[in-house]
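Researcher: Please predict.
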Amino acid sequence: MANKAEQLTAFKLRSNSDVKGEAGSGHAALVVILMFAVYLEIPLYFTETFYVPGAILVFSIPALLLINRNLISKSDLIFVIEIGAILLLTAFYSPGTEFLEHKLSGVAQTTVAIVGGILLAKEIGRLRRVTAEKIFFCLTLALLIGTILEVLGVLSGVSDSFREVAYGRGGYSVYSNEERDLLLAGFSRPKLFTSEPSLLAVGFFVFSTSWLLLLTTMKRWLLFLAATMLMLYFTASPILLISAGISVFIKYLNQYRVKKTGWIGVIATLGIILVISFFVFSGDFLEKINSRFSNAASGALIYEISSENLRIVFPYLTAADVLSSSPIFGVGISGKDVVGLFSTLPIDPGHALGNNNLAALFIYMGLVGGLGFIYFFYRYSRLSLAPSHQLKLMILVLGFSQMMGGFESPRFWGYVFIFIEVLRLSQSTRPKTIELPR
């Protein structure tokens, strides 16, 4: 009797969960729209110099606040206040007071981007876990199919026209380097409605990894690796190599957590076989990747402006220069104009800043501000994530921050909070069918 009572209680709980899930499924379309808004980050221009990045997400914030007013917790408010205080300290107590107005604009932009990310996470949290899995699978598939169609020429005209209109002015720039594309991939690399191929690769990394995180089975992981290798072939972006590497860590942590250590060797073997098979059957692709990194290594010695140097070399050299002269609060949030006062690199300060948000954190905020920012972020994520999931988040953010710049952007913080919410959802038990007791 006790057993049947427990079964009946479990069934009732499951039924209530389904009702709640069905009510929340009305948000699925909104979540998809917001995901694409983060991926595209379409700016709204008021003048040539004044524009709002990620306008769709930013202008959705009042409505999202209203929708999620009952889900916003005291810890959310405290986190935003703490981050805002750190940003203000870096703006007021860093060198270059003549650029204070620009820094305060950076404070507002970063804070709004983080608030937008939190609200996007709340919307994802309203979904049932299986619904979130389907959404991320469809987004991954949409980017993969769209990429193939653009390479085949079906979407290239529409995508290029959109890019020119959306990103052709202001602080954005439209990537156009056919010669480099031919060298790296043998064809014009796809951008799929973004301003450059790397942003397509980053979007694919976030959506596909989120799908994997929600249920990290062996079958799903191998499918993820296969899709990632296919995307790597079409985009020739090393970002996807980082994505594949991170997935190995995720799978390892999952197996270790459930004490299935015997699978670790199998994981490594299958992953290596799949990756090697890709390079064997993709002709001279491996040679092109090797050539790209060797050219980057030699180019770093002469300060060549290349994608690798802008992401890996220049930002960390600039961070070392800034921290040696202004260790407490760096150059201040959005202190791009102050970077030139400290950088010893014989290149434009914008290139010296580069595209690496981990380095940008310490360039903008210094050691005190940067470590304070990290501590508040860690304390906030700890409220909803178990230690093993916090470790996954750390790996994801460390890898992800090497891939893109725009520390103040809604795109960056939207992706960060997608990972936080997906990891939180992955902690819940996947619903199983429960039969009625007889």
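Model: Confidence is low (pLDDT under 50) at residues 1-23, 432-438.
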